[in-house]
Amino acid sequence: MLFRRREPASFSERMRLLVWPRRSFARSFRYYARRVLRLGATPHAIAAGIAAGVFVSFTPFLGFHFVLAGVIAWLLGGNLIASALGTAIGNPLLLPAIWASTFELGRLILYGRGGHLSAPLHLGHALAQHDFASIWKPLLLPMTVGSLVEGTAVAFGFYLVTLWGARGFQQRRRDRLAERARGRAGAGPAPAV
Questions:
Q1: What does the alpha-carbon distance between residue 165 and residue 82 come to, in Å, rounded to a whole number?
Q2: CA–CA separation, 24 vs 136, rounded Å?
């Protein structure tokens, strides 16, 4: 293979790369930003796709993020690839903070300042017994309500930033291509000898 490593990465190296990038987080962020901006779609489609992915990343339905993001992006007229890239916000480093904040906000919206913590939730036992109803009201309902509010706010911010970035990137690209075309037209055909 053309771009293969000379020495294959060990198992521990591959696990480390899942959590911590080889170069830096800034380089990884720039890579993903450029991937998004180079998508062949309108700025609205790119921004709507990213916003759909970011919104879904706030929901507690972890196994369904790609599917939900794709459906929401399709409904909004967004790009499906951008929606998949937008779900990268829900990464292992940010998910604990996202889930804690959506749970607390949802609990505040649903039950007020008092909280509504009746009995301790035995999550492992409920999951082992496939008892979805016992974890819905104390855990998933507050997280879902909180995720609707937080996800909408953060997704709207990402939509605006991505729309602005995509418009600027595509305008600069059009200007570069027009300049190149003018340069070729001004040179004209080579004289015959």
A1: 14
A2: 38
pLDDT (tens digit per residue) in 49-66: 999 999 999 998 888 889
CB 53 within 8 A of CB 73: yes
Report the predicted TM-score, pTM, of the whole model to 2 decimal places. 0.72
> Which structure tokens are listed for 26?
């800034």
Measured CA to CA, the distance from residue 38 to residue 48 in angstroms comes to 15
H or E stretch covering 120: none
pLDDT at 11: 82
- Distance between CA 27 and CA 1 in Å, rounded? 25
Reported as a single tens digit per residue, the pLDDT across 21-47 is 666 667 766 777 677 666 777 889 989
Tokens matching residue 45:
């489609």
Could you tell me which of 65, 60, 19 has the C-alpha nearest to residue 146?
A: 60
CB 69 within 8 A of CB 87: yes
- Six-digit token string for 20: 């911590």
For the chain, the structural domain boundaries read 21-116+125-167
Residues in contact with 86: Cβ distance below 8 Å, sequence separation at least 6, in sequence order: 49, 50, 51, 52, 53, 54, 56, 57, 69, 158
